[in-house]
Write a structure and sequence with these properties.
The protein is mainly alpha-helical and 561 residues long. It contains 25 helices and 6 strands. A 4-stranded parallel β-sheet has the order 3-4-5-6. Strands 1-2 form a two-stranded antiparallel sheet. β3 (455-461), α22 (466-479) and β4 (485-492) form a beta-alpha-beta unit. The longest helix has 33 residues, at 248-280. The relative contact order is 0.15.
Length: 561
């Protein structure tokens, strides 16, 4: 068992112990500035969409982002306000007011700290792949719907309803009040982002689009709502730390929202850390990451911010920008603070329709379209889990969607295992324990093959489903770092679900980028059908009938002569 220091030591300490020089600091400074440029418009846009002020979004990114990087268990995690929280935060503000939101954020931070110290981060990885794809797509739809008012420049009467089924008729009735100027600004913002991503992908398209929109509003005196007209601009610094009045009745009232914040924050942050691991080959400390997320939420609440979590897009940007370690995330927060201190008056000219255009692009990018199509054609069961999670996210509640989706995934697993154990009698779920001389079918052991440093053979036994995918994926990533060929023996795998297939697909892309063949052996017809439905086809992976043929192919790849 790992001791406390192994599990909860921040990656910042690990990086500094390994040696941190000027070259590493320069890399982190460039990455931090790059991420700050991306985070600046997003933080304000997400806060506004959540029913908060743009200043609160910046407070969240500055305080929360700094603490996540300084205390977290991931080298590259970037914390801040996330689009996934828009629905929950907006509903909490409507029900309990801003004080209720801040109190719920602080309680969620305490829950995340407790979850980390109780080592619950290990179990959050067991959420099935269709559930994560479904609720992410659902959140994207809700985010886009929440921006229709600003995208079209509508001026409806009364407050906008939160639920989608009430929101759409409300906005439809207000359609005659649309502003052609606001529509032009939002479409222009989207067009600049899309074109820039197509022809200059390394430029900060979102920031450039927002700046151009603000310049047009100022120069042409366009009649559109801006941050200045709606919120009076943003302050030129951080407020003094404080918490709202805390009473037992108020704690009980906001506790359900706090639990939802903690659950979604844990899932989002650990998914983001996993993405960073896949991009870099590093390993995050999941429970340490939960503790850091909890402290960051408490810190954000103290300064009047909203919920903090790890953000996948900004974390990926951090990695691509060449970050060396957590200092990049800390510098990103400091760069945002400098913006508040120096350029706060300029933010008053930013049109809300431009920020709505930014979030429309974010919502479109959140939908994993390839994954959705793959799951829909994979099998009826996983398509059902995806659909139910998606619909519950839109029409009911995000927490309910995750719980129901997980339960359906577990029922689907049980049903598939019952069919598998009945049909594939040669591959039982739990192999019978027999002495060596009773294993008539076992293969001969060759020491030189097991010790081969170039061709790595890994045998997977048992159902490769969402409950085992996280641990198996972590092992495969570690052992494949130095191999020149990787062979996966799936002959003892009775079935594989979409989560397991996604692990192999991710491994296949990693091997392809390194020029290393990934060979699958021992696959049954049913197993190959499942893998093919997830696009695990040549040349991404290669299928061979036996280990001998696979080794021969691998040797030929390494030594063509």
């Amino acid at each position: 068992m790992a001791d406390f220091s192994d599990l909860f030591l921040p990656k910042l300490i690990t990086v500094l112990r390994d040696g941190y020089d000027l070259h590493a600091f320069k890399a982190d400074a460039v990455a931090g500035l790059t991420v700050a440029v991306v985070a600046l418009p997003l933080s304000m846009a997400i806060a506004i969409a959540s029913g908060a002020t743009p200043a609160q979004g910046l407070y969240t990114a500055i305080i929360g982002g700094f603490l996540v990087s300084a205390l977290g268990g991931s080298r590259f995690q970037i914390g801040g306000p996330a689009g996934a929280f828009i629905v929950l935060v907006a509903a909490t503000v409507m029900q309990h007011g801003m004080d209720g939101l801040i109190l719920a954020t602080a309680i969620a931070g305490l829950l995340l700290v407790a979850a980390g110290f109780l080592r619950l981060g290990t179990y959050i990885k067991f959420i099935p792949y269709p559930v994560t794809v479904g609720f992410t797509a659902g959140i994207a739809v809700i985010i886009f719907a929440s921006q229709l008012r600003e995208l079209l420049g509508l001026s409806p009467d009364g407050s906008e309803p939160g639920p989608l089924v009430e929101k759409l008729p409300y906005l439809w009735e207000a359609l005659p009040t649309f502003s052609a100027t606001a529509v032009a600004v939002s479409l222009g913002t989207i067009a600049v982002i899309v074109v820039q991503r197509r022809y200059r992908p390394h430029w900060p398209g979102m920031l450039i689009a927002v700046c151009l929109a603000a310049l047009a509003v100022w120069a042409l005196s366009l009649p559109v709502a801006t941050i200045g007209s709606r919120f009076g601009g943003i302050p030129g610094g951080l407020p003094a730390p404080h918490l709202p009045e805390i009473t037992l009745a108020k704690v009980q009232a906001v506790l359900p929202a706090a639990v939802s914040f903690a659950l979604l924050g844990a899932i989002e942050s650990l998914l983001s850390a996993v993405v960073a691991d896949a991009m870099t080959g590093r390993r995050h400390r999941s429970n340490c990451e939960l503790v850091a997320q909890g402290v960051a939420n408490i810190g954000s609440a103290l300064f009047g911010g909203i919920c903090v979590t790890g953000t996948i897009a900004r974390t990926a940007t951090n990695v691509r920008a060449g970050a060396h370690g957590p200092v990049a995330g800390m510098l990103h927060a400091l760069f945002l603070l400098v913006f508040m201190l120096v350029a706060a008056p300029l933010a008053a000219y930013i049109p809300l329709s431009a920020l709505a255009g930014v979030l429309a692009v974010v919502a479109w990018n959140m939908i994993e379209r390839d994954a959705v199509l793959t799951l829909l054609r994979a099998n009826t069961g996983e398509a059902s889990v995806l659909g139910v999670t998606f619909l519950l996210t839109i029409f009911r509640d995000l927490t309910e969607a995750i719980v129901v989706g997980f339960a359906l995934g577990a029922v689907l697993f049980i049903a598939r295992m019952s069919r598998t154990t009945a049909i594939v009698t040669a591959t039982p779920l739990v192999p019978v324990d027999r002495p060596d001389d009773g294993n008539g079918g076992r293969t001969e052991f060759h020491e030189e093959e097991a010790a081969d440093p170039d061709i790595l053979v890994y045998h997977i036994r048992g159902a490769f489903f969402f409950g085992a995918a996280a641990s198996v994926g972590a092992v495969l990533d570690r052992i494949s770092d130095t191999a020149k060929a990787l062979i996966l023996d799936l002959s003892a795998v009775p079935f594989i679900d979409s989560t397991g297939a996604a692990v192999i697909e991710s491994l296949g892309h990693k091997m392809r980028d390194r020029g290393v063949p990934l060979i699958l052996i021992g696959t049954t017809h049913e197993l190959r059908q499942e893998l093919f439905s997830h696009d695990l086809k040549p040349p991404l992976v290669r299928y061979e009938p036996t280990l001998e043929i696979a080794r021969s192919y691998a040797q030929h790849r390494m030594d063509p002569a």
